[in-house]
Design goal:
Shape: globular
Number of helices: 7
Number of strands: 2
Strand order of the largest sheet: 1-2
Radius of gyration: 19 Å
Distance between the termini: 56 Å
Length: 218
């Protein structure tokens, strides 16, 4: 922006990462609801015996769900936010109350389809910057998914830990692959519009690691 004399003025908070109070509250609500929804799905929803599982099973499902909610959803959205803010844009997370409500409804039906919210971005962002901002989320999922799949491969006989590593890894990679679909408002469309080569590489890595987590190539 420029002042009245035509001199370039850089806002004091330009490029800084910051959160609003309401944003933090909505992030906390979204993570909590998603964790609950993931836990219900892992325990089978209405088709499962939600009241018949032991405390250990509940804690395992809750732990896996919390990790997936943080690595798969929260850090995905924060990656968008941080990169956008580094480019000088305004970026804040806003939850979708109806999306969170539907996540719980679907969870009790035994599957998860969630639209918990998104980072809203405003500012002078060009196509390349928009592509990089969009790619940051799925790349975060791929990174964490790959780490957990690697832990599963390193510790294949660690019992419940191995199951947890594999589950978290596959769910993170599934979220990456889904968000990279180049359609509608998904990240993949903006990445594709910017650079199809980066889109292809990212999708190929996500799918390859997901297949590895499902037991292919072993």
């Amino acid at each position: 922006m420029y002042d009245e004399y035509g001199n370039l003025v850089i806002p004091q908070n330009y490029g800084r990462i910051h959160f609003g109070r309401q944003e933090l509250i909505q992030i906390a609500i979204s993570v909590t609801v998603l964790t609950a929804a993931f836990t219900i799905v892992l325990l089978g929803g209405f088709m499962g015996d939600l009241g018949g599982y032991t405390a250990v099973v509940w804690l395992f499902a809750l732990g896996v769900s919390a990790i997936v909610s943080v690595t798969g959803f929260l850090l995905h959205e924060l990656a968008h936010k941080f990169v956008a803010q580094r480019y000088g844009a305004w970026a804040e997370f806003r939850m979708y109350p109806m999306g969170l409500f539907m996540a719980l409804i679907f969870a009790f039906l035994g599957f998860l389809f969630a639209a918990p919210g998104a980072v809203f971005i405003s500012g002078h962002i060009n196509r390349k910057q928009n592509g990089i901002i969009s790619l940051a989320g799925p790349v975060t999922n791929i990174a964490f998914g790959s780490i957990f799949i690697a832990l599963w491969l390193i510790f294949p006989d660690a019992g419940i830990w191995s199951v947890g590593f594999n589950l978290v890894g596959r769910l993170s990679l599934m979220l990456a692959a889904f968000n990279l679909i180049p359609l509608g408002p998904l990240d993949g469309r903006k990445v594709w519009n910017w650079n199809p080569s980066y889109w292809f590489i990212s999708m190929a890595v996500a799918v390859a690691m997901l297949l590895l987590g499902w037991g292919f190539f072993i």
